[in-house]
Input
Amino acid sequence: MAKPIIKKTDSKPAAPAAVTRKYAAGKIVAVAQDVYTDIIRKNARPTMRFPIRSLSNVKYDPKKGHFEILKKVATRTLSYNTVKTFAQSMRLMATTKNDLLDKNDIAGKREIYYNSKSWGECRFDEQPESDSLLDDMEAMLGINREQLGYIPEERGGEVTGPVTVIDRDPGTGGDIRINCEKLGTGAWSIPSQVEHLRFESKAKFILAIETASLFQRLVHHRYYERANCVLISMSGVPTRACRRFIRRLSDDKDLPVFAFTDGDPYGYCNIYRTLKVGSGQAAHINQFFCVPRVHYLGVTPQDILDYDLEDATHPLEENDIKRAKDALKNDPFIRHYKEWQAALNQMLTMGVRIEQQAFAKHGLNYVLEKYLPAKLKKGAFLP
Amino acid sequence: MAHSKQTLATAESMAHSQREIAVSEFFLKNRHLLGFDNPRKALLTTVKEAVDNSLDACDEAGILPEISVEIAQTGARRFRVTVLDNGPGIVRAQIPKIFAKLLYGSKFHRLRMSRGQQGIGISAAGMYGQLTTGTSTIIQSKIKNSKVAHHIEVQIDTRANKPTILKDEELAWQPQFFTADKDGVAQLSKEYTHGTCVSIEMEAAYIRGKLSADEYLKQCAIVNPHLCLHYRITVLEAAGAAGATGAAAVTAATGQGKGQGAETPASDKKPAVAAGAAVAAWITFERGTRELPKQPLEIKPHPHGVELGMLMQMLKDTTAKTLKSALSNDFSRLSDRAAVEICQRAALDPKARPAHIAHRESEALFKAIGEAKLMRPPTDCLSPIGEDQILAGLKKEITADFYTAVTRSPEVYRGNPFQIEVGIAYAKPDASQDVAAEDPVRVLRFANKVPLLYMGGACAMIKAVTGVNWKSYGLAQPRDAVPLGPAVILVHIASVWVPFTSESKEAIAHYPEIIREMTFALQECGRRLSVFLSRRRRQAELERKRNFIEMYLPHLALGLREILALNEKQETQIIGKLHKMLERTHLET
Output
């Protein structure tokens, strides 16, 4: 009856093609050269093509384990309607090449938004405008924005447990060893760039947790020692760096990964799904920023019944229902797995959602003393 | 039984006080009927009557009209109006009757399109002046082939409706017209060998605005683009007004100095002005065209336009010997055959004596005429302004960037031919001080080329303008009101007999045939306006797009320049090329 819960992944996607800054700059020049040639040689209105970034342009291939971008391509041809975005894209690429890549500098998304304020009427009025063009640029170039010099603003997640991360000194380049078991009451923050990290670990698995408060409880009670696992706090939808870190650690040390989130459509369809197969928005780079081997531990709708938690639930709100129905209809990942469809339908039928903290009904430490061990032992995970 | 002190009238005593009322007496008591209800309106009416007469005379004589109008304040509530024209002049014997006998004139008895109709106006103005100031109407007139001019001063004997001549002399005089040079000083611009000058002093008030003589003259200039019009007004300053009456009278006399013979033109350059009087410079409304309007033809009345009383009168007055020939000779569109038919229908002998019929069987005849099918009246008797002339007039006097005009084909109401014309001038909002964007459109009303300023609310023209759905042509329009917008709408009715609602000739009666024609003309102009407005909206949109594109192309080029390390020339080349491409695909209509 014991199922091989620790299953090795068949394919190990290579690290995102680590490109040099020179290569990235070359790609930008190539795009600009195409535009220039369109204008001057072909006497044609220039176009820029990039993959459409949305759930409608991805498919889920379980063999590859991640959302894969389809062939739908958006063409932005210069016209009255596109002239502003076109000009902004050009200036954004110019800034990326000249100020970040050529000068070996970095910038945050918000910094680049403020940087545009010097562009006169070409400036971005709101940050979502520049964010969206950054995503376009990364899709068009096929290079993730971290490698273009853009650093994420949000924190990448926190790590505690039996793993030693070998980082390098930004000044000297020498190794710095960080033992994540010896961090006292705190945790180690995942940096925005994780490609260079190396690991030493004897852990048995990785547990990725949605909420910081539950993570704190597990750290406080040294659950990582008891279960011999690496605990990672995702704080909502995991960042690219967090996903990449989990992926690299699990690949490197061949560790199974389990996700523990709130039992609601957001926890299933946004947090877990993004961790496992990537997002529709960034489908062009999902290949690297996903953890196909992750399995879903809980909280499942069935757990509510199994652990007698009906009176610790909340009614589904309108946007929960919408999100669940939308996923059942449009999310290629959900549509691939009957188990997930069953879980979502069960939730819709029950009409309730549940939080990770609900186990406190049975005692504050019930979750780490009873629930987690039982679930891990039983091995009945959702895919 | 003692009678009350009040003695009752007897038929005999009543007969004692029963006597004929002269027309002039009647109008003296009912001067509002002629447009002299208040001092302000009296001034306008006087100018109007004199100018109308001048224009009619010039048109009829085929003379390109030049008219000067001078209004000079002579006292706190007194003004002298002097109107000079280059018309054919008036023979001496006719002058007193024309200017001092009501209902005397050439226009009442004929069906021919002209500004004046009844022969009341100018005499009434003189009578009003005489009544309010005791002064006479002063006339100078010279006909082309006469060596001398006549200077005549007349008053009207209101009891007898007859002129009283106070002065009658010959003098050397000829019409002279002045324009202001750039310093505002009057300069002699034109002299003629013929013309008439009439000057009337009266109690009046001058207030600028939509109901003023200024507005009347401006509208005259619009609707008579072949007219060269000079105008100036001298108003006493309020402070000096009270005591200056005597001295100001001198001003007025000098003001019409051009009437004082050839030896005094110099006085016109610097009029001896009473202290406190502000002498304005001559304003000249130049001609927009030298083309004379088509001469309207005189027509006989159409049988369907004749009322019973008039029919009786015509049968009495006719020179024809038989009823049949009376009908076919004195009416238009009545052939011998049709005349016989009518007689048969009325069971009358076609050979009967017309005067006999007039007394006995005119009602049967009238009924038969009404039932007869007849050709419509001839319409060549009308002289519309013409689309080109309306455009010329509007362009001359209204600053706008869209003009259109429609002249409808002639139509008939009650047997009278009439013709409707409409013009629209639409300005860019705020571009012109003549018209404001948020205000109601200004409706300029004209009847036989005469501006109508009063009683718009009662006029068929306003009813027609209000009845059109202007929203569908791109103008805002409050419910049951004229549309809003920076526009002027001109409506003109030309007719041998314009149906005014009253003798003061201020509003057109609401004949459905007339309103329908006006509506059609307004709608046609409205459609053209809406084409213009939508084209302009499109152009504004294009302009906006062009600016947008021009704003961002340099940024696109700059981005490329920075990425590809281009030089300035290449950057300029990119902008130029892109501009051409977008121009081709986006900015061409």
